[in-house]
């Protein structure tokens, strides 16, 4: 099931309604969370929910799989592993005299 299909089903289900989640935090973690929330002008609850939401989205986006044909995979492989073309500005910079000689 794709992420978008999962989210669509989730929105139609009973899980779409808000629910209570209880957390046990060490004093150190609670202090850190409270300090970060305060720095952003948020409540602890809003900060934790927002942080969890952002992390969940990042994790799911990192799970994307790209299915490529052989030729497309070869192009990507060559681009990632092949030698880089030098940037003209970098070549010009490297051809100049060292700054220590410009004094």
TrEMBL record:
GO molecular function ontology, one term from the record: DNA binding
Transmembrane segments: none
A family per Pfam: TacA1
BP GO annotations: regulation of DNA-templated transcription
Lineage top rank: taxon: Bacteria
Homology family: Belongs to the TacA antitoxin family.
Protein name (database record): Uncharacterized protein
